[in-house]
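EI: anyone free to look at a 329-residue chain?
SC: sure, send it
EI:
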Amino acid sequence: MAGNTEDMMDIDTEDDIYLSTESSFYGDEDTREELEDRAASFSPEEWIAANDRTFPAIVARKKAREAIEGPSEPKKPELFNAYAGQTKCAWQLNETVDAFLRRIPPLSSEEVVVGPWIYAGNPHTDWRPLEEDWAGLTEAGGMILNAWSAKKAQITEEMARGTAGARTAKINREMKPVVDGILSLAVNFKCTSGKWMLFPYPDDLTYTWSVIAKGTVFDELGIAAKVGTDNGQGNRVNRLICVYTRNFADEKDVRRVLNRLAELKVLPRKNRSIYYKPDVYTHLGISSGNEFGFKPQIYASADMLAAPKGKSDTIAVKKEVFDTTKPDP
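SC: here you go
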């Protein structure tokens, strides 16, 4: 036993040597002093508060920082103009809307000089026409319409001896899924823009366009607007104004733009309706009296303004140095 005890004492003595405070295992004297100071000043509560990632803690730290540094400036969205550089026919970011309206007045602007349209884009929208595949949509949509034309002709031939009413009812039943298919195809190809169409009298054109151009640029309407120029007929005919929205299937936004047009008092007098046409119809040549039998529009202002919210007649679809000082109206 004595020998064993002596051995144990020898081991303890070696441990004392290796773990002595004089050993460099703990670092030199300066390092030890620094670590001791950090240990003495460490506060578990402060560390938890500074590293707490819960929402209330993050908000509290932000408020504390702003109390010292002041509130941070909100990041201003980057302005965007889809018609940048098209100075001959469109509003530009470096001019006021009033200057634009004086520079290209629709009543006297000729198509041979300006082009068929004058444009105003919404610089505040995050809509970008970069992913649209109009070529692909036109090709695929054309195939669907060709197949429908053949089907429509077949129905007409098969029911030639029947009544016109029965024949029309049959065609309308067969046509509905074709219409839905065209609109769903537009969504798949990311070609969802559409427009409310107004035809103001020549005497009302300048005022109506100025209101719509300002409403577009100041982010009160849709993503863009355009007005027709003089195509040689002078001021004997009404000109078309289009007010664009980003997605024809977004009835809430389509309705919002219509309501704002009503508030701006630019809708036709005597409660005459205006109509909303998806751009896919324009690209596929679906206009009034088209050979396919399609209605050339999917919304009517009279129906949408009269219907309770969310109850209007819609088509189901499967599932973008600047002076913005607004003058007095």
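EI: The mean pLDDT is 82.
SC: 👍
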